[in-house]
Design the sequence.
């Protein structure tokens, strides 16, 4: 998946944020939605993106338990 972002923590935060959205609403698990949302997330500040990413990471861990 091309995100237009260099490798680093921001990629992980984007992926975690996207995962949380899909867990909340599986209908969003489409290439069209995920591509559009990725572009929006990449535009966020580091602080905003990190917060969303951490929420997604916590949600994933909760779902795995």
Sequence:
């Amino acid at each position: 998946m091309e995100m237009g972002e260099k490798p680093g923590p921001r990629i992980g935060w984007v992926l975690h944020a996207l995962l949380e959205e899909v867990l909340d609403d599986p209908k969003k698990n489409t290439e069209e939605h995920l591509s559009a949302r990725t572009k929006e997330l990449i535009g966020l500040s580091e602080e905003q993106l990190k917060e969303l990413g951490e929420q997604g990471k916590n949600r994933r861990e909760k779902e795995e338990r």
Notes: The helical segments are 9-24, 31-42, 46-64. Residues 14 and 41 are 6 Å apart (CA to CA). The chain has a mean pLDDT of 91.
